[in-house]
Automatic annotation (TrEMBL), chains A, B:
<keyword id="KW-0804">Transcription</keyword>
<dbReference type="InterPro" id="IPR009057">
    <property type="entry name" value="Homeodomain-like_sf"/>
</dbReference>
<dbReference type="InterPro" id="IPR050109">
    <property type="entry name" value="HTH-type_TetR-like_transc_reg"/>
</dbReference>
<protein>
    <submittedName>
        <fullName>AcrR family transcriptional regulator</fullName>
    </submittedName>
</protein>
<keyword id="KW-0805">Transcription regulation</keyword>
<dbReference type="InterPro" id="IPR039538">
    <property type="entry name" value="BetI_C"/>
</dbReference>
<feature type="DNA-binding region" description="H-T-H motif">
    <location>
        <begin position="37"/>
        <end position="56"/>
    </location>
</feature>
<dbReference type="InterPro" id="IPR001647">
    <property type="entry name" value="HTH_TetR"/>
</dbReference>
<keyword id="KW-0238">DNA-binding</keyword>
<keyword id="KW-0678">Repressor</keyword>
<feature type="domain" description="HTH tetR-type">
    <location>
        <begin position="14"/>
        <end position="74"/>
    </location>
</feature>
<dbReference type="InterPro" id="IPR036271">
    <property type="entry name" value="Tet_transcr_reg_TetR-rel_C_sf"/>
</dbReference>
<dbReference type="GO" id="GO:0003700">
    <property type="term" value="F:DNA-binding transcription factor activity"/>
</dbReference>
<dbReference type="Pfam" id="PF13977">
    <property type="entry name" value="TetR_C_6"/>
</dbReference>
<dbReference type="Pfam" id="PF00440">
    <property type="entry name" value="TetR_N"/>
</dbReference>
<dbReference type="GO" id="GO:0000976">
    <property type="term" value="F:transcription cis-regulatory region binding"/>
</dbReference>
Amino acid sequence: MSEPSRRGPYAKGVARRQQILREALAAYAESDSSGPSLRSIAARAGLSERGLLHYFPARDELLVAILAERDTADRASFDADTPLDDLAAVAAHSARTPGLVRLFLEMSAAAPDPDHAAHGFFTRRYRDLREVVARKFRRSGGGNPAPAVDPEFAARILIAASDGLQAQWLLDPSLDLTADLSRLAKLLESAVSR
Amino acid sequence: MSEPSRRGPYAKGVARRQQILREALAAYAESDSSGPSLRSIAARAGLSERGLLHYFPARDELLVAILAERDTADRASFDADTPLDDLAAVAAHSARTPGLVRLFLEMSAAAPDPDHAAHGFFTRRYRDLREVVARKFRRSGGGNPAPAVDPEFAARILIAASDGLQAQWLLDPSLDLTADLSRLAKLLESAVSR
């Protein structure tokens, strides 16, 4: 085998992986919440299903790589310098791709298994994302008046935060679920119907 | 076959199911986040694995029934009359049973599939829980001073709520992810480091 170089087979493999991931994101963008089949992703990339899996060690590795590629694409619109409120723009993007939302949920449910392809990705993702978002709050926090919120909003958020924190806690048991939820309940209570 | 009666085979089946679910919760309470095997739950109930599945149409039906049984047990300590802050006590219970937290996450990832055993359970659970929690906020909200929060707390909550809201939204696409997250970001910003 020839030495890998920028123009050699290694670079070709990298370029092909990138192309597959771009096609996969495009396929998810056109799909409903059940997501596209591996076969249809492969077809878009001009490959058979077996040919597709030649570029990724296993099916789950491909699925995690698709989520990582979405993060890279989202980061273009949400990085350390964009304001906090732009996280909502990322959510709006999610709302247009329910298949990726469901894939995210499935992989996050698999992530607590240390042998699963999603374990490292989710552990790093939560750690890095918490840092980036905390830095934004440090810059922008304080001074603004609290918005008034309705009880239904408060309920959705408290339940959502409880579920989402448990997913983070499975990967980082040092988080204090009880303290966080108790403080959030107090914060929401203070803002309800003012 | 004899007519089912309180003392007949039907009642016996119900009692046996209840016993299996109690044993399952006890097995989860003693397990780490990977959870107990079906075999060990069966053994606690004096059954083989095949015998265990005689009482539930399928494995997933048993797993969803275990989550429903946990909710019933939690409801004893968290119902419509207990104050909001007691949701934190439910979280504290979760923190002692990581296997159930992981089972919850796995089943909630499967719930968007309308044919999955978890679909009806999670759809009802979110709807009912949102109502109960909103009623609590309606009673208790307003008037209290907002607690000061640190940027790391704000980051954990915003990320958790984003993930948790997406799980609710997959089951109820009428939820407005973007509006909810934007409002939560503003509420957290107003409370950071005051």
